[in-house]
Amino acid sequence: MVNPWLAMETGADPVERTRTVRRAHAAFLADGTVAPPVRQVVADSWRRSAEAHAAADGAAPIELDEATLSAYRDGHPLARAMPVFRELLGSFAQDGAHLLAVCDPQGRLLWVEGHRGVRRSAERMNFVVGARWDERHAGTNAPGTALAADHAVQIFATEHYNRQVQRWSCAAAPLHDPRTGRLLGAVDLTGGDHVASPHSLALVQATARAAQAHLASGVPELGVCLSALGRDEALLVMDGERLRLGRRHSEIMMLLARHPEGLTGDQLSVLLYGEREMRPVTLRAELSRLRQLVGALLHSRPYRLSRPVETDLDAVEEALAAGEVRSALNAYRGPLLPLSEAPGVQRLRGGLADAMRSALLGARDPGLLREWSRTSWGEDDLEIWEALVDALPERSPARSAPMATAHRLRAAYGLTSGDLGAVGAPAAARVATFAQPPRL
């Protein structure tokens, strides 16, 4: 079976491949249709890029200035893995006229190293530290698509969504915290057509595994962690083993994690189903199926978890409680189980979003406000846009774009400037859907 994550099979003609995919790319931009020979992973990425209004031309935005970048990456977990990246990919990048890049979960490049001439050439498309290369801002590319799909992937030449990047090829693999399973970022190898060889993807995957093993060294107990922010299906990591839960099981695990004292069947039923009439056997069946997956972690009478479970919701709340708004924003991957209609989950989701917005509005930091406004859950938040305008110097040319967006949103809501306070919460509470990784 052909590996769908590989850009080309051995022996394929890169010139012909470039030509045929370029025609397919032009057709997609013209009418939204996409057909073979475009790989499914690329077609899906093009659609996500188009839905996010990523530019088909132009350079990726730079979000982290030098001062912010230095402090941020020094404290980033992947800083500990840089010796591994440099040992396994650094000399390969330098000798082969490639670039080694490492980004955070938002796609912001934290390290870009390698051949000096290649670095200079890459600077013209802002493939530099501090630039944001997720699909939303840079379109289809290996690090951005590896983050979106949570899988190692190659992107060859004209498979890139942005035409400025189509002379490059790249291979990237996501990186996870070995204790919690949470996405830390991605490692990438960028260069010419030869990066599209099967050997390059295998090398990047092996480097990612070695880096994660290095991060795991010295960790005495992995514990149990649950990630549910920005995901319709939660990720449970128990003693290093990763398990993606179904939607109902995700809701149950999150609710039990938030109630370590346990819940009776009636209490759990109300949090899951609200006032709807549900037969007790329905909940018991769900819990029985969940116990088959998690074993002794789930106890009954009352329903509870036998071990402490750390959640990504906890991480955001702890950062907010400590006044660390930047850390909270970095940990906030999106609304909690965004498609869930369980009343207990809805309350948690709304409470966390309100707390995040309150912290951002209180901090009045233009960088933090701008970052929230660029997300799918913050792009229509008028109060955030107004706060961004107010936080920028009065004569700054940077005020014009957020001011125009604020005027557009105010008109869309049918509001005058005096009605501002009434619109923030509904916009922030808007439910968003997120692509789920195809496999663990």
List the helices and strands and how they pair.
Blueprint: H1 14-31, H2 40-51, H3 66-74, H4 82-95, E1 99-103, E2 109-114, H5 116-123, H6 135-138, H7 142-149, E3 153-155, E4 169-176, E5 183-191, H8 198-216, E6 224-227, E7 235-238, E8 241-244, H9 247-257, H10 265-273, H11 280-294, E9 298-299, E10 304-305, E11 309-311, H12 312-321, H13 325-331, H14 343-363, H15 366-373, H16 382-391, H17 400-412, H18 424-428
Parallel strand pairs: 6-11
Antiparallel strand pairs: 1-2, 1-5, 3-4, 4-5, 6-7, 7-8, 9-10
Helix pairs in contact: 4-8, 12-13, 12-14, 15-16, 16-17
Please tell me about this protein's structure.
The chain has 440 residues and is α+β, with helices and mostly antiparallel strands. Among the domains are: 14-216, GAF domain (Beta-Lactamase); 224-311, Winged helix-like DNA-binding domain superfamily/Winged helix DNA-binding domain (Arc Repressor Mutant, subunit A, Orthogonal Bundle), CATH 1.10.10.10. The chain is 46% helix and 11% strand. It contains 18 helices and eleven strands. It has helices spanning 14-31, 40-51, 66-74, 82-95, 116-123, 135-138, 142-149, 198-216, 247-257, 265-273, 280-294, 312-321, 325-331, 343-363, 366-373, 382-391, 400-412, 424-428; strands at residues 99-103, 109-114, 153-155, 169-176, 183-191, 224-227, 235-238, 241-244, 298-299, 304-305, 309-311. It has a five-stranded antiparallel sheet, with helices on both faces. It has a four-stranded mixed sheet with strand order 8-7-6-11. The longest helix is centred in the last third of the chain and has 21 residues, at 343-363. The radius of gyration is 23 Å and the shape is globular. The protein starts with 13 loop residues before the first helix and ends in a 12-residue tail after the last helix. It holds the Pfam family GAF. This is GAF domain-containing protein.
